[in-house]
Write a structure and sequence with these properties.
Elements (H helix, E strand, L loop, with lengths): L8 H24 L7 E4 L10 H4 L6 E4 L32
Antiparallel strand pairs: 1-2
Length: about 100
Amino acid sequence: MTQSDAAPAGRRRSGFVALGMVGTLALALTGCSSGDNPPRRCVDPGTLKVLDNHSCTDSRSTGRWYYCGSGSTIATGGTFDKAATKRGGFGCPAHSAGG
């Protein structure tokens, strides 16, 4: 292969950049989809106060999983119904913690 057969260095670099951007976009889109495990947090169902995760895994606790919500101390904009996060195949709403 001669010098004239090779693509200019700038052209090769731009191909790598485009390929990298496509890969990054694919990762970003799959990271935002809820799939089978939408983002969740442990919440007191009466007050919507965010609890530690142990409060939902302990059988004696009253905490319940709250899906797709936002808020650091009081949960908002989500649901206790995991199935509701899959309606229409789009997962969590854009304003939630999931996407």
